[in-house]
Amino acid sequence: MSFWNRIIDTLSGAENKSTYLQNVPHDAFRYVFVDVEVGLKDYKIHDIGALRWDGAILHSANKRELMDFLKGVNFICGHNIINHDAKYLFGEGTCRYLLVDTLFVSPLLFPERPYHHLLKDDKLVSEQMNNPVNDCEKTRDLLMDEVARWKELSTPAQIIFSTLLQDHDEFKGFLAFVNAPIGRKDSLADLIRSKYIGKICEHADIESMISRQPCELAYALALIGTTDHRSITPAWVLHNYPNVENLVRLLRHTKCTEGCTYCNNDLDVLVNLKQFFGFDKFRTYEGEPLQENAACAAVEHKSLLAIFPTGGGKSLTFQLPALMEGRSVHGLTVVISPLQSLMKDQVDNLAERGIADAVTINGLLDPISRSEAIQRVMDGDASLLYIAPEMLRSKTIEKILLARHVVRFVIDEAHCFSSWGQDFRVDYLYIGKFISQYKKKKKCHEAIPISCFTATAKQKVIQDICDYFKQTLNLDLQIYASSATRTNLHYSVIHADTDEDKYMKLRSLIAESSCPTIVYVSRTKRTRQLAEKLTRDGFKALPFNGKMDTEDKVANQEAFMNDRVRIIVATSAFGMGVDKKDVGLVIHYDISDSLENYVQEAGRAGRDPHLEARCFVLYSDTDLDKHFILLNQTKLSISEIQQVWKAVKDMTKQRMRTCCSALEIARKAGWDDSISDIETRVRTALAALEQAGYLERGNNVPHIYATGITVKNMEEARKRITESLLFESEEVEKAVRIIKSLISQKYIAKAQDAEAESRVDYLADILGLNKSEVISSVERMRQEGILADSKDMSAFLNDAGESENKSKRLLERFTKLERYILGHIPDEALRISYKQLNDNAQKEGIGTATEKDIRTVLYFLTIKGYTRKKEDAVHNIEVTRQMDMGSTLKRFEKRIEICQFTIEWLYSLTLQNTKEGIKKNGVQFSVVELLNDFKVKRNNLFGGIGDVQLEDIEEALLYLSKIGALKLEGGFLVLYNAMDIRRIKDSRLRYKQEDYRMLSEFYKQKIQQVHIVGEYANLMVRDYNAALQYVQDYFQMDYKQFVLKYFKGERVQEIERNITPNKYKHIFGTLSAKQMEIISDKESRCIVVAAGPGSGKTRVLVHKLASLLLLEDVKHEQLLMLTFSRAAAIEFKQRLMGLIGNAAHFVEIKTFHSYCFDLLGRIGNLDDVKDVVARAAQMIKDGEVEPNRIAKTVLVIDEAQDMSGEEYALVHALMTANEEMRIIAVGDDDQNIYEFRGSDSRYMTQLLKESGARFVEMTENYRSSRHVVDFANAFLNGIERRQKSTPIISMNKKEGFVSIHHHVSHIIYQPLVDDLLAHRGEGSTCVLTQTNEEAVILVALLRKYGLSSKLAQSMDGFRFWNMAEVRMFLKLINCGVQTSVIPDDVWEKAKRKTFDMYADSSSLHYLQRCISLFEQTNKTKYHTDFKEFVFESSVEDFCDLSGADVVVSTIHKAKGCEFDDVYMLITNSQHIQDEVLRRYYVGVTRAKERLFIHTNTSIFDRIPADEHHVCQQQYDMPDEIVLQLSHKDVNLGFFKSIKNKILALRAGQTLRFDRNYLYDCCTDMAVAQLSQKMQGELRLWIEKGYSVVSAPIRFIVAWRPKDAPQEEKEHAVLLVDLILKKK
Predict the structure, then answer these.
(1) Rounded alpha-carbon distances, angstroms, from residue 952 to 788, 884, 928, 963
(2) Buried b vs exposed e over 726-743: b needs ≥16 C-beta within 10 Å?
(3) Region 1484-1504: what's the mean pLDDT?
(4) How far apart are CA 492 and CA 1017, in angstroms?
(5) 275: exposed, middle or buried (C-beta count within 10 Å: 0-12, 13-18, 19+)?
(6) 691 pLDDT band (50/70/90 cuts)?
(7) Cβ atoms of 10 and 2 closer than 8 Å
């Protein structure tokens, strides 16, 4: 039987062929099926296929031939022919043929699952490409099935559809084709009610629907007529007829007031509650029907906000309406929640009840599970979809939601909308925008209702939520909240003084109880520690926290739920969605961070209203400090958002739009990779910038590839894939699935979302593959020619010529560095720090190496599988090779060869484009094209052309991109989902405080909430009922009124500080008003403080550091303090530790040189300090430093007056790189005594020229007595060009004393010592000199009179690390260390051995003090840190001046010190300049009580003092003097052959001097010889009557000539003191 005869049989039935056709002439059955292939770009007809009623076939691209083929035809049939093929065949004019379109009738006739096998959405399923005849055959088969299905419809159904659709072109042809019966419109409504009785509301206004929206009504009735609620209306129907969804709702889910059978049963919440959950009634909360009221509101299509207490049955309240609408309108409810684990729990809980309607799509799912979840939503299996807010940015999520009838958005944790809530999330603010855009794309005229849920919310939060939805979606939320309180919970707060006391009280409470118990702690680490401790003590407990492995979490939770364990120790993550009714005890070991959270967590006790439950808080004030510390760590500060904004501006300099990952932005912003939740923080910052209108973030950017398919059908595709050598056996099936998915969507030009079908992320989601697998298969199919190759990649290059050379030089630089790195990875592993590796590379000839380049190389080697890399928080690394050395180097050399070719190739394309006048931002090319050219031109390389694959080309391109040789866009080099960001505002604009208002308000609230919950704890101890009233007021009163009621006077300010009142008082309570003025300044971009002597400069800086960390949102990694000496850096670190504890360990306090060595990636070394600051500043300017090394929000400078041009250039470079960075520079121009090395206080003045700069004078002197200060002020009058205008004011109550002794004699050592002996008091005493020689002579003179003294002097002749004792300790450490951290046993063993070996050395104390200070200031002993600490220190940094009767010091070395009595020796001052006067001023201001100046100059003659003495006596040199020998004073060549003999000696050991040689008294062997220069000096002393009486060893040091060959070993050198006495 022919096809046409079968159609007639189908129409009329085999027994009665002509029920409707008997009056139709036979020649009317002349039909043609037509399919037209149209170009995607030129929109022209490329091919035509036609299949005529008589079996004739036409396959041609000639339109005229088709017209001839159509002669005598009545019907033209096709799939989507009306809106596609006919437009190209007949234009916009009237077509004389009746068009039968199989597309529009298919959802009417096949509305139920399983849908027609030839259809997928609006497209025909086909395994052939570009074959219009084959498509005609598919259409023919579909039409036959449609005609057959039409015949199966009841007569009323046929009449309903034909009467509704008779006037619409899309259906006319088909209705004529089947000779459909047409009914009367005036009786149609009754017919519909009769046909669908029990399925629709009897009182629905069907008459209006018939007249206004007949097509929509037909599709709605088709869906309503299905028996499977999982059947859904195709997305294309919803797109073209958007009101279908609304009509379904009006017919099926709008409860009538009159009451009808359908509404009374199907829309009754109690009936459905029983049906779905088996409950006879809803749960009440203290008698209030919260659940039922909210559920009814949802069923009635209302938007609502429900404040449900913990255990109030929130989930069921939205699940029941969702399930009802899933059945009634086949709708989807979208639940947005930030809690991924809770989503899974709710899906699993419903599944346990036999309800399989819920799915979750989140980042925790593997690709296959994700694919299954997406497919279930698209197929209609899901009535509930749980997603996180961030998922709304996914194009896949947008696509599947557009394909479904979304009936409601449910927002869990709705307090996240409000900056007054306890957990404000900026990404929640995108929800309204998404829903608005969704409605627009769906062409929804009706509002989509919203349900918001939160467990606890104060009035302001409720108002914020309501305002948000009113403003964004014009929705009014009905509020459902309970005013009742839980009467079965009994609260108690127990004060605990110490951690041990707290634990004992916890154990006691647990011992008294036998019921299930939850113990809440604030930190994840403590859950395990406390659970283990309780278990050891006989109380079996399990931990639970959000960071545990999922399996462990589930196992522990189930053990608790099933009563296998009674106690669970958990963070607040436990309990959400957990419904255990018999929990009788909740103990907060750490108090919650807000009353909202406390009430919610405590509310997990006593879920059974008949159970009396107890809720305890074990409280101490330090609990609040922990919350404040955590808040500081997690807070997203305004400066961090400013850094992200700057990164976005940098990335959009050329074009306003960029596609990048969160991690790329973080690195560009200078954030350290070790920051926890770094990607979340970036997205939050972007959301804040978007909210403030600075940028617009689109959906996560998909990868698009060419959709050109070159194979004709699936059979050919499978054959070519199977035969290809490019596909491994396990890859064949994946490739086949991908090409099948593409071919089956061949009507791509007719699809609603053509682009979406060919996105990598969409294919991966749908097929359950990893994105990398899809990319790999697509690339291979392009290489094989199965998919058309296209120039989908762009290389952005500069003009050819010099830039080509630059790229080549860049490649050469990185090649050299990478070859070095690969060559130094041993077979086991390379364990080293980045800095040490860079230092080694530079020392071994890689002069261009930088730490940034090393990171780039290692990152690339790791992601491409050359190496594995582990890295700790301070960037110590362990690198292992994945292959043997030979294979690794071979792969490396191949890549470099390809890179060299690629650079030349791309630049040749650039030149060609330039010649042809093509102006583009980038050179367009494809990797397949590059591969083929490489094979042609380099076919003799690597053992043949088959040796280079597409992956090799891609690896080379990625490498060139990573090292910055070129910028690539497109293709598949990046496997992550990038974000689409468009900058809106001008790049000159800065993110301001006003823009930060919402986040600022949120953090302010978070701080207050911690104080408020602390107040609750204290109140509960004093007055139980008052505490309960306090909680009730908190939730029900206006917040400002609540604060005024409970926090009066100064307490309002107290609760705004991120610190407890006691701690605030402890840290800041004793500071002066002027000091607090500086510390409290949080706004000035640049504060320059001119701090006079004794004004508390160090104190202010330490407290300012504490304020920055505790009160000003500055994170430790974004704070930098620079000093001019290691001693100052150590002192600041120690004092800060004393103030704020261990947090000080993480603050970067460094010397200028040390910080610059860091930036250069070098191990600091005082021998190499020349130009190091200038080089670092230049590197910052040139962009050669990784952003995370210089991204600082606050820079603090100590002794700012000592800045030279180099240091200022560094500061200026940092300010330029961090446009929002604050500067706090403290110094005293009057104490600038280092002009000889370039210091200039005018750089402090230069800082004041910055915008927003502020100058502060600190002139209150807390150190010196009034007379000393008066003398200092008078002395200052002689110094010109001063910054301070206010005189120093003594805050000391003591009068003090100043005595000036004017001498005639040139030598005045003896009268100074006589004066000291005569006036020596109980306090500290210091003698200040101008030179080291003077200081040494005075030490000997004081010793003569029985006074012990300690010498503070410069020791520039050698470095601290060259001391024998230090060398021994370093050697022992180096031998024992295998990892980046020095183990405690290695450290202690090295100490013990060194201390024992040098027990009798007089210089051992320098090493001991060095070790002690390192231990105090470094919580973890990193090997590199210790080496830096040693190499960057000088001997004087470890001088211990305590315990001496008198300190003798040069003025330079006494700077920063203070003493009760100061004696100054000022002699022979000629050409007095301001620098010298400032030096004397420094000496004067060291005195606290008394000042004695002995001078033979006239400088002090006219300055008022308590005493002026004139002494005419002449004095001789002292009987005993000391000559301290340095390297230049000994014959260094003499030591070369006696190293072991020298090392056997010890500092402090006395040598015998004879005829310019020094002898070991034990062996009588010569161990040193004086230099010729020193011999001459000694002769002069001998001529004056002195002779050498003793020669104690001062230091034994390592030395090697600067010009010595590298292989020459170091020598040991003796530095001794020659003690001379007059005969």
Answers:
(1) 20, 19, 11, 17
(2) bbeeebbebbbbbbebbb
(3) 95
(4) 9
(5) middle
(6) confident
(7) no
Pick from 712-716, 974-978, 1461-1465: least confident: 974-978
**Which of 307, 210, 299, 303 lies closest to 249 in space, CA to CA?**
299
> φ and ψ at 856, to 5 degrees?
-60, -45
The pLDDT of residue 702 is above 70: no
pLDDT tens digits, 227-246: 988 899 998 999 899 999 99
Mean pLDDT of 894-908: 91
Q: Assess whether pLDDT exceeds 70 at residue 971.
A: no
Q: Among candidates 1272, 1329, 1320, which has minimal Cα distance to 1494?
A: 1329
Q: Residue 234 and residue 379: Cα distance in Å, rounded? A: 10
How far is Cα 1035 from Cα 483, in angstroms, rounded to an integer?
10
- What's the token pair of residue 1018? 């204290």
Does residue 1423 or residue 802 have the better pLDDT?
1423
Decide if 721 contacts 727 (C-beta within 8 A). yes
Alpha carbons 504 and 518: distance in angstroms, whole number: 17
For residues 95-111, average pLDDT: 92
- Copy the structure tokens of residue 1367: 């060398």
Which of these ranges, 116-120, 579-583, 1076-1080, 1400-1404, has the smallest mean pLDDT? 116-120
Element (H, E) at 462: helix 459-473
Look over the chain and give the mean of its residue pLDDT values, rounded to a whole number.
87
Token output for 799: 């003009």
Quick check: helix, strand or coil at residue 716?
helix
Residue 800 predicted with pLDDT over 50: no
Indicate the Cα dihedral angle 1047, 1053, 1058, 1059, nearest 10°: -80
The residue with greater pLDDT, 128 or 576, is 128
3-state secondary structure of 1389: helix
For 1379, the token pair is 């990892």
**Is residue 585 a contact partner of residue 511, using CB atoms and an 8 Å limit?**
no
Strand partners, 587: 519, 616
DSSP code of 795?
A: E
**Residue 1020: CB partners within 8 Å, gap ≥ 6?**
491, 492, 493, 617, 1027
Confidence of residue 1135 (pLDDT cuts 50, 70, 90): very high
Give the DSSP letter string of 183-251: --GGGHHHHHHHHTBTTB-TTS-HHHHHHH-HHHHHHHHHHHT-S-TT----HHHHHHSTTHHHHHHHH
3-class SS at 1267?
A: helix
By C-alpha distance, which of 201, 208, 238, 198 is closest to 220?
A: 238
Q: Is the pLDDT of residue 386 over 90?
A: yes
- Residue-wise pLDDT for 1581-1614, tens only, equals 999 999 999 999 999 999 988 888 878 889 999 9
Owner of token pair 């909430």: 1009
How far is residue 714's CA from residue 730's CA, in Å, rounded to a whole number? 19
- Cβ contact 1056:1004 at 8 Å: yes
What is the gyration radius of the CA atoms in the chain, in angstroms? 43
Structure tokens belonging to residue 1029: 């009233």
Tokens standing for residue 950: 């597409």
Cβ atoms of residues 1318 and 1400 within 8 Å: no
Q: Which residues pair with 411 in a beta bridge?
A: 336, 452
Backbone angles phi, psi at 528, to 5 degrees: -70, -45
Cβ 662 vs Cβ 700: under 8 Å: no
DSSP 751: S
- Do the beta carbons of residue 582 and residue 613 sit within 8 Å? no
Q: Say how many C-beta atoms besides its own lie within 10 A of residue 98's C-beta.
A: 19
Q: Rounded to 5 degrees, what are φ and ψ at 166?
A: -60, -25
Of 1532, 1619, 1517, give the one whose Cα is nearest residue 1578. 1619
Amino acid at 468: Y
pLDDT digits (tens, 9 = 90+) for 631-689: 888 888 898 999 999 999 988 887 788 878 788 888 888 887 666 678 888 988 998 99
What's the token pair of residue 835?
Answer: 């800095």
